[in-house]
Design a protein that fits this description.
Order of helices and strands: EEHHEEEEEEHEEHHHEEHHHHHHHHHHHH
Low-confidence stretches: 480-527
Length: 529
C-alpha cells in the first residue's frame, strides 16, 4: 500500500514532546503518537467510495496487514507526524477552556489525483495531552454509529466528514453507557475519518481566551489561505470576509439538517466546523414522529440542543466566533461583522423555505407558501406523523388520490396525518398551489419530490439493530463495501433485507425537533433571538 501524507506540523507545535495530560499553551498542535491495541484487530467496515475516490486506493488494499495497521493506529506511514489539535469551546453555553483532541490523532493530509486535500484522522487511537480524565479510546457502539451516520449524511447530500474504515479490537474499554454509575465492558474501536479540515470555532476561541493573539492571527491567515480561496489573505478586511462566509455556510448547513430531521445532539462550539461541515457524531438522532422538541442526547436535561433550537444555537456559536475574532478587528470591521451576523436569520429562513418548498414539489413563489409548509408541519405534530415518511409518501401519491382523499394502506404516514380533521383543508390548499403551475405535470412533481425526499434516514432502530448484532460479532446488517446511492435510498449502508422488512411497518414513536419568525411563528420551529 502506497499513500504519501503531508503534515500540518508547519503550524506551531507544543515543544513538550512527552505524552501526558497537561495545560498546553502557545501552539496549535501537540505531537502525539497513537497507542496500538494490545489484542487482535479486525476490520469490520470500509467505505469503497472513500478509499477509491478520495484516497486513490484500490479496495483490495483494505485486505492487507499494512492497511489494518494504518487505520488502527498501529503503524505510521512515511511523511506522517501524528498530531493532536489544541482547541477550546463553549459546552452547553459555558466556556470550558482547553478541550482538544483527547482521543484522536491527525495522521496527515493526502492530496488525491483530483488535487483535493483531505485530512486523515484516527478517532479512538489513544491518549493525548488533551485526554483529561479519558482513556483515549472509542468503543464499537459509538464508532459504528459514527461510521454509519457520516456516510449516510453524505448520501443525503449534507456536508460532512467521511468515514473510511472501522476496526474493532478485543481490548477491554470500560464505559458507563447510561451515566448511572454502572460500568460495563466494551470493545475498543478506531474510525479513520477524513475531512477537508478539522478546524472548528473552538480552534480560534482558545487562542483569544489565552491572549495568544499573534498565534490567532497566524492560524487565521493559514485557514484563510488553505480553505477559503474566495478570500484574499492580503486584504485588510479578510477576517470580515472570512466571517461572512462562515455565517452564510453555517445557515445553509443547519437548514439542511432540518430538511432531513437531523439533530446533532451536541452543538458546542468545539463541534462546529469552520468549514461548515457536520463533524463529531455523538448522541445524534434523526427525528421519527415530528416533534420540534426532539432531543437525541439523553444528558441534555434542559433540551438546549433540541432539533428546534439548532438554528438558535448556530447564532450563538457564530457570536462566539465573532468574539474570538474581535481582538483582530478595528472598530469599522467590528461594525461590519456585527451587521453580517444580524443577517444570519434571513439566510437561514431563506434556505429553510427553499428546501421545504422543494420537499413539497412547489415551483415559483407564492405568498401562501410559508403557511402551507407550516400547516403541514402543524398537522404532523398533532398526529405524531413520521417526518421522513410523510414527505416521502407525498412524493409517491398521485394528485388524483389526494384529491379524492384516497390514501393507500401502504402510505401509513399519510394515513396517520389524514386522521386530522383539517387534513382535507390542507390538501385543498396544496393541490391549488400545485395547479398554479399550469405547465407542470404530476409525474414531474413526483420525480422532483422523490429526488429530495429520502426513503431512508439512519433512524435509531436501524443503528441499534446494527450495533446489537455487531456486539455479538455479527456484522450482517452492516455492508462491508457500501455503494453510493441517491438520497432516496439508504440501503447502501444497512442490509436491504432488514429495510424491506421494516419499510411497511409504522416505526415506534421516539422522544421530541425543529424551531424557526414570520416563517418561524407559523412553523412552530422556534425563534432566532
Amino acid at each position: 500500500m502506497k499513500i504519501l501524507l503531508i503534515t500540518l506540523a508547519v503550524l506551531p507545535t507544543d515543544p513538550v514532546k512527552e505524552n501526558y495530560v497537561r495545560k498546553v499553551k502557545n501552539c496549535v498542535f501537540s505531537i502525539a503518537f497513537p497507542t496500538p491495541f494490545q489484542s487482535r484487530v479486525r476490520l469490520v467496515a470500509v467505505s469503497k467510495e472513500v478509499l477509491e475516490d478520495i484516497l486513490d486506493l484500490d479496495l483490495s488494499v483494505s485486505e492487507t496487514d499494512d492497511f489494518i495497521q494504518l487505520v488502527s493506529g498501529g503503524k505510521i506511514v512515511f511523511g506522517s507526524i501524528p498530531l493532536a489539535h489544541r482547541y477550546g469551546g463553549h459546552q452547553f453555553g459555558i466556556w470550558a477552556d482547553q478541550l482538544g483532541d483527547g482521543r484522536a490523532h491527525l495522521i496527515g493530509i493526502y492530496m488525491n489525483r483530483q488535487g483535493e486535500k483531505w485530512e486523515l484522522q484516527l478517532k479512538g487511537s489513544g491518549k493525548t495531552p488533551y485526554s483529561r480524565n479519558g482513556d483515549g479510546r472509542a468503543i464499537l457502539r459509538s464508532s459504528l454509529r459514527e461510521f454509519l451516520c457520516s456516510e449516510a449524511m453524505h448520501y443525503l447530500g449534507i456536508p460532512t466528514s467521511r468515514a473510511a474504515s472501522l476496526v474493532v479490537s478485543d481490548d477491554v474499554v470500560w464505559r458507563d453507557q447510561f451515566y448511572n454509575g454502572n460500568l460495563a465492558k466494551e470493545r475498543g474501536a478506531v474510525v479513520l475519518r477524513v475531512a477537508k479540515s478539522w478546524f472548528r470555532i473552538g480552534s480560534l476561541e482558545i487562542l483569544t481566551h489565552s491572549g495568544e493573539l499573534d498565534l490567532l492571527r497566524m492560524l487565521l491567515d493559514f485557514i484563510i489561505q488553505e480553505y477559503f480561496p474566495l478570500v484574499d489573505v492580503k486584504e485588510p478586511n479578510r477576517y470580515v470576509d472570512f466571517f461572512s462566509i462562515v455565517v452564510f455556510e453555517t445557515a445553509q448547513l443547519i437548514a439542511l439538517w432540518m430538511s432531513v430531521g437531523f439533530a446533532h445532539g451536541v452543538c458546542n462550539t468545539d463541534n462546529f466546523s469552520l468549514l461548515s461541515i457536520t463533524i463529531d457524531y455523538g448522541p445524534f438522532g434523526f427525528m421519527e414522529a415530528y416533534n420540534p422538541d426532539f432531543v437525541p442526547n439523553t444528558s441534555d436535561d434542559e433540551r438546549r440542543y433540541k432539533i428546534g433550537n439548532q438554528a438558535n444555537i448556530g447564532m450563538f456559536n457564530l457570536n462566539k466566533l465573532l468574539q474570538a475574532l474581535n481582538p483582530l478587528l478595528n472598530p469599522r470591521q467590528k461594525q461590519l461583522a456585527t451587521q453580517i451576523l444580524k443577517e444570519y436569520p434571513v439566510l437561514y429562513y431563506t434556505r429553510f423555505r427553499e428546501l421545504f418548498k422543494a420537499k413539497l414539489g412547489l415551483l415559483g413563489k407564492s405568498e401562501g407558501d410559508d403557511d402551507l409548509i407550516a400547516f403541514l408541519l402543524h398537522l404532523m405534530e398533532k398526529t405524531e406523523a413520521d417526518f421522513t415518511m410523510t414527505f416521502r409518501q407525498l412524493s409517491e401519491i398521485t394528485q388524483s388520490q389526494l384529491q379524492e382523499l384516497v390514501i393507500p394502506q401502504e402510505f401509513w404516514a399519510l394515513k396517520m396525518i389524514s386522521k386530522h380533521k383539517l387534513f382535507p383543508a390542507w390538501v385543498s390548499q396544496y393541490l391549488s398551489r400545485l395547479k398554479s403551475n399550469i405547465s407542470d405535470s404530476d409525474s414531474e412533481r413526483r420525480k422532483r419530490m422523490t429526488a429530495v425526499n429520502p426513503r431512508y434516514v439512519l433512524k435509531n432502530w436501524m443503528a441499534e439493530s446494527a450495533v446489537q448484532k455487531a456486539e455479538r460479532n455479527d456484522f450482517s446488517e452492516f455492508k462491508l463495501f457500501p455503494r453510493s446511492t441517491s438520497c432516496s435510498k439508504f440501503s447502501a449502508i444497512l442490509s436491504r433485507s432488514t429495510l424491506q422488512l421494516r419499510e411497511q411497518a409504522i416505526p415506534p414513536q421516539l422522544l421530541p425537533g425543529p424551531e424557526i419568525s414570520g416563517l418561524a411563528a407559523h412553523l412552530n420551529l422556534g425563534q432566532i433571538n
